[in-house]
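--- STAGE predict ---
source: upstream dedup step, 1 unique chain passed
mode: sequence only
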Amino acid sequence: MPRAPKKTETTPTVRVKPTRRASDNPATTLVVAPATTPVVSEAEISKLAYQIYQARGGVNGSPLQDWLEAERQLSGR
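--- STAGE serialize ---
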């Protein structure tokens, strides 16, 4: 009788508890709220990043840091 090959690697078994969905109850209505993060264009970010660069006199900085700061300011964070 041939032997089954030994397993060298095992995959853990994960059990997932079933969750209740809105579709399980026909009286439930889902409401999706609009996104609160404003959409900012690259042109707006670029313009503000350049203004940040100019405000510090064009020295001691990084274009990437200016860009990220402009994104933060424009997104309201």
